[in-house]
Amino acid sequence: MSTKTNISLKNKFDRVVVLVDMDCFYCQVEEKLTPEIKGKPIAVVQYNPWQGGGIIAVNYPARAKGVTRHMRGDEAKQHCPEIELPQVPQVRGKADLTRYREAGKEVAEVLKCFTPLLERASIDEAYLDITERVLVRIREMNEGKFQLLPDKLVNTFVVGYENIGEFVKKLSNNSDDQSSDKLEYKKSDIKLLVGASIVNEIRAAVKEKTGYECSAGIAHNKILAKLTAGFHKPNKQTILPIDSIPKLYETLPVKKVKGLGGKLGEQVCEVLKIKFMSELEQFPESLLQQHFEERMGSWMYLMARGIDLEAVTAKFHSKSIGCCKRFPGKNAITGLATLTHWLSELATEVAERLEKDLDENNRTAKLLTVSYCQQIDDVDVSSTRSIPLVAYEIERIATDALEAIKRNTDRFLKTNSTTVLNNAIKFLGLSAGKFESNGATKGGGIKEMFQSYSAKGATAEEGPSGMGRRKSSTEPAMLEVLDAAPSATGTSEKIKPKKDIKHFLQQQCKGAIAVCEDEPKLPHSEGETQDTKPVSSATKVQYSDPLAETVKPKKDIKHFLQQQSTAAKKSASEDSQQLKTETVEEKAANPDPDQMKPEGGYKSVLHQSTAKSKDHNIIELKSIHNVVETNSTNHSKREETPTSATYNGNIEPDKNQPVTETKRDETLENSSSTAEAKPQPNYKETYAEFNFIPPVEPAIVTVDCQQCGSKIPENEYISHQDFHFALSLSQQQRDEFRNGLKSKLAAGTNAAAAKGTKSPIPAKRPSKTPSGPATHSSSSGVSIERFLSKTRSIDEGPIIASTSETETHSRCPECGKMIALLAISEHQDYHVAKRLQQELHRLEAPAQPQTGDTASTKRKRPSTAVEEIMLPAKQKVKPVSSYFSKL
DNA sequence: CATGGTATATCG
DNA sequence: CGATATAC
To answer: Distance between CA atoms of A839 and A207, rounded to whole angstroms?
Structure first.
C-alpha cells in the first residue's frame, strides 16, 4: 500500500524515531496469565503432541539455558528440565492468537498516549516518532521545567560509548567547535538523548499499565531504530548517535538490516562482494540501481549513509485480517470434503475476527483473498485469488473461497472422481482486506456529538487529562525542524474519521480511563490515524443516512445471530445430515475423527446468518449479489463420495502446526557487532538494570538504587532516594526544597517548610522497596511536606541528617551551597545537566506554547528557529567527567 | 514431512 | 491483480 511516505533529505537526521519491541512477548503474556510461572524459564509452544510442541517464544531465563526457538518442547526440557511450556490456545484445530493480539493492542494503546505518530509494525512492535515531544521537552529544559538527570536515563545505552555519561559528556562539551555539519549532528543527537528520557517513561508506562517489559531503539530513522533496539535486549533501550554509525557499520553484516535479511541481502553481498554495511558506501547510487531495483538502489545508497527517509505513519490497525494453515507432508489436503472443512474453519475465524473488527473499528473489508499452495508434480505451486467480500458470513466466505479455487485451478479434481483433488493442497489461507470505513452516519443530533468530539481534539490519543490541545488544527508552532520533517511530511492524513455514536462513546470511554502521562500531550496536527484514511470521502459513497440507522440495527442483528449460532451449534448436529454423512465418511478414512466435528454445526449456523443478513441488507456492496452460495458447498460435499481412497488418511491436520509469532531471537549474533551487551547473570525480575555498574560487591550491605543503579549502603538508602526525589523536582521545587530544608536544619525543627509547590509535573518519589522492578516514573507521588518530614525524622531511625551540617555537608565549589555529602555526586550531576541545558539553549529558539485553539495560523516561526546559529559557548563549568559517573 | 501463522510491501 | 519476498 502506498501508505509509505518519505521525508525530505534535508531532514534526514531531524527526527527522533523509536522502535519499541516487546521482549519475548508471548512468554510475557503467558506469565501474566499464569503468575505462578513468573521468573521461571519459559517457552511458549504450540500444542502438538509431537515432541512436545513447537517452540515459538523463549524467555530470557530459558535462553540462558540454551533453549531456542526451532526446538521442540521435549528438546527444551533436556536443556532445561524446569522449563515451563505454556501452549498457544487452539481453536478449530489451529492456533488462536487472540490472546496475544489483545495484549499487543493493550501495549499499543499505552504507546499511543505518547504520540499519535504510532505505527504498529507487528503484534509486538511499534515505531514512534517522538520528535515533537522531544522538542517540547527541550523547551521545558530550557525553561528549567525539566532536568535531564541520570535517573531519567537508567537502562539507556549508547552505541559507540561506554556509557551514557560519556555520551552526555560529549554532547555537553561545547569547546570544540566543528564544522556546521558536526554541529548539526550534535543537535540531532541531543534530541536522541532527550528522546531517551521520554522513551524511558514510555517503557515505564508500558510496564506499569500492562505489566510487560520491552526494549527500544532510539535513532533518527526507522531502520536504524529497529536495528538499535536489538543491541541491548531485555528491558533496555539503546541510542544510536549519528557519529557512531560508521563504526557500527564496519562490523554490521548487511543481513542485519531490515529488508536485507533475505535473498536480496544475499544478492547484494554476492554481487557487490561485500559483507558489511560499511562496504556499501563505496558504490554509486546508479550502480546500485542498475543491479537492483531503482528504488532499492536509492534506498541502499542512502542506507549506506545511515539515512532512511521513510516516515513513521500513524497506523494502529491491520490493513488485513486473515488466517492460514499449512498442511505439510502427509497432511496435505487431498479430498474435497477436507478442503471444504478447512475452508470453513478458516472462514469461521476470519469472520469472527472481522465481526470484532467491525465492532471496534467501524469498518468493513471488501476484498477476500484466498491463497493456497498445491503440490503439482513434486513442485509447490502457490496461488492467490481475490474476490469481493460481500458479507461477513462464514458460509459465504467459505463457499466463495472454494469457488475461487475451483475456478482457478485447472483440473481441480482427479479425472473420474468427484472427491479427490487432482493436486494436494499443502497450504490454505483466507485474508480479508480493502477496508472501508462505515463512517459518516451523519445524523442530525449526532453531528453535534462529532463536533464536540473533534473540537475537543483530545480525541483518543490525547490523554484523559484535558491537557491535550484543543482544536485539531495544527502544530504547536513547534520547532520548525519538524515542519519539514517527520510528521510534517506525513502530510497524508487529514480527515478525521467519522465514527458512529457507538464509536464515539467508546472513544470517550477510552479517553476516560486512558492512562496517559502527566505531561502535555502533543497536539500534532494530524490527529487520527489513517486507518480510516483510505476512506477518502470520495471513495465511499455514503450509504447515506438511512444506513446510519441501519448501522446499529446491524449490530443487534449480529449479536442476535451470534447467539443463534451458538445455540445452533448445540443442536446443529441434525441439521446437516448430508454433510454429516460425508464428514463421517471422511472420518472413516481418517485417523483423526475429532477434528471434523464442527462442520455440521457450522453449516446450519451459516445458513441462518446468511439469510438474515440478506434480509436486512446488512452488507451492501456494489458488486453483484451472488445469490448463489450455499448450494455449492452442499453440492460438492454431496459429490464427495466417501471413497475412502479419497482421503488417503490425510485429514488430520490440526494437531501439528505450531503457530507463530516469534520474536526474533536476538540473543546471538545480533549484538555482536558493536554494542555488545553481554552481562546478564540472573534474570530475576529486572534483568537489565545494573549493567553499568561493575558487579563489585562492597563489603557492607548495599542495596541497588532503582533510580541510578548505584549500590547504596543500606542505611543510606532512604536518604539516597530522597535526593533522587529532590533531583526530579523542577527547578522551582528544588529551590523551595532547598530552602525548606535549610530552614529546617537551621531551626532544627520540623517546621512545615516548603509546602505548596504544586507543580504540574508530579514528582514521584521512588518507592522504597529496592526490589521493585525498574518502573521509573511511577505514580506514587509524595508531597513535598511529607518528603521533608520524612527526611527529617520518623521512619527509618538512623538518618544521617542528625549530625551537624559540617560533618555531613560540604560546600559545592560551583554554586557554593552546602550539599549533603551523600548527594554530592547527584548535585554535580545537576550542574552538568544544567550545562547540557545551556548547550541545548543554544539550539533552540524559545518556542511558544501553542495556545491558539482555533487559530490554525501556522506558527510562522521561520525555519531559522532550530537552524539558529549556535552561539559560542560561554560558561565553562567544571568538567563533566563526573556526570552520570554512576551509570 | 514438520516451526508456522500473520501481515505487508513491491514488482511486473 | 497476483506472485514473491521479508520479517515477526
So the answer is: 32
For residue A296, say whether its CB is under 7 Å from any atom of strand B: yes
pLDDT band at A70 (very low <50, low <70, confident <90, very high): confident
- How far: A653 CA to B3 C1' (Å)? 15
Buried b (16+ CB within 10 A) or exposed e, A231-256: bbbbbbbbbbbbbbbeebbeebbbbb
Q: Which residues pair with A88 in a beta bridge?
A: A46
Q: Are A22 and A628 in contact (CB under 8 A)?
A: no
Express each pLDDT in A662-719 by its tens digit. Answer: 233 322 223 333 232 322 222 221 112 222 222 222 233 333 333 333 333 333 333 3
Report CA-CA distances (Å) from A797 to A716, A783, A790.
11, 21, 10
Q: Which nucleotide is nearest to A430 (CA to C1')?
A: B6
Which is the catalytic residue, given A119, A125, A140, A599? A125
Which of the nucleotides lies closest to A69 (Cα–C1')? Answer: B3
Distance from C-alpha of A718 to C-alpha of A64, rounded to nearest angstrom: 34
How far in angstroms lies nucleotide B2's C1' from the CA of residue A49?
Answer: 13
Which residue is listed with cell 528549567?
Answer: A144
Helices (H), A240-293: 245-250, 263-272, 285-291
| Span CA (A739) to C1' (C8), Å | 54
pLDDT, residue A37, reads 96
Q: pLDDT for A561-616, tens place per residue? A: 233 333 333 322 323 322 232 333 343 333 332 333 322 222 222 222 322 332 22
**Beta pairing partners, A17:** A129, A219
What is the Cα gyration radius of chain A?
Answer: 30
Catalytic, A125? Answer: yes
Gap from A366 CA to C3 C1', Å: 21
CA distances from A110 to A212, A237, A764 (A): 11, 17, 20
Element holding A176 (H helix, E strand) = none
Contact between A344 and A596 under an 8 Å Cβ cutoff? The reply is no
Closest residue (Cα, C1') to C3: A383
Return the bridge partners of A368, or none: A387, A432
Helix, strand, coil share (%) of chain A residues, nearest 5? 45, 15, 40
Q: How many residues does chain A have?
A: 887
Q: How many Å does it take to go from CA A62 to C1' C8?
A: 20
From the Cβ of A274, is strand C under 7 Å away?
A: no
What phi and psi, each to the nearest 5 degrees, are found at residue A18? -125, 140
A184 touches strand C (CB under 7 A): no
Distance, C-alpha A261 to centroid of its chain: 21
Asked if residue A1 keeps its beta carbon closer than 7 A to nucleic acid strand B, the reply is: yes
pLDDT tens-digit series, residues A419-457: 999 999 999 999 999 999 997 766 433 433 333 333 222
Q: What is the DSSP string of A629-682?
A: TTHHHHHHHHH----HHHHTT---GGGG----------TTGGGGSSS-------
Nearest residue (CA) to C1' of B4: A659
Q: Quick one: A746 exposed, middle or buried, by C-beta within 10 A (0-12, 13-18, 19+)?
A: exposed
> Strand C: which residues 644-663 of A lie within 7 A (CB)?
660-663
Residue A15, H or E segment:
none
Find and list the nucleotides of strand C having atoms within 7 Å of a protein beta carbon.
1-8
Handedness of CA A239, A240, A243, A247 (dihedral sign): positive
The angle subtended at Cα A103 by Cα A98 and Cα A108, nearest 5°, is 125
DSSP string computed for A421-474: EEEEEEEEEEEEEEEEE------HHHHHHHHHHHHH---SSS-SSTTS-SSS--
CA distance A241 to A782: 36
